[in-house]
Amino acid sequence: xxxxxxxxxxxxxxxxxxxxxxxxxxxxxxxxxxxxxxxxxxxxxxxxxxxxxxxxxxxxxxxxxxxxxxxxxxxxxxxxxxxxxxxxxxxxxxxxxxxxxxxxxxxxxxxxxxxxxxxxxxxxxxxxxxxxxxxxxxxxxxxxxxxxxxxx
Length: 152
What we know:
alpha+beta; 2 domains; four-stranded antiparallel β-sheet; three-stranded antiparallel β-sheet; 5 helices; elongated
């Protein structure tokens, strides 16, 4: 029976953090790999996706947009607000960018991609952008999912 430990031992080859960092610093990584920025922005109050510049100008006292503000000029507390909930605009960045980079087999690269993982390919080189760090790879949720899919 396939285990996560076996999968990692046979399909994950080498950590290439230093190499990827060197390539990125010299502007070479993006030219050779299809790098996708996966950062998302959400309102910290209502979780609605918001792009910078889409916020509205509104009053925090009466919870209305600027044009509809009911406060007197002295009481008006204007700020950028979320267009959905009209709360003060605070972006919560949810960075899903890779924390580690590993060369993996083509087979594992396909499995990782089908499970939503970040993978860059160039010819026979498959770089997995691991979004966790500090624990054994065999403990990653995406690895457990792949093993579960294969053994069920």
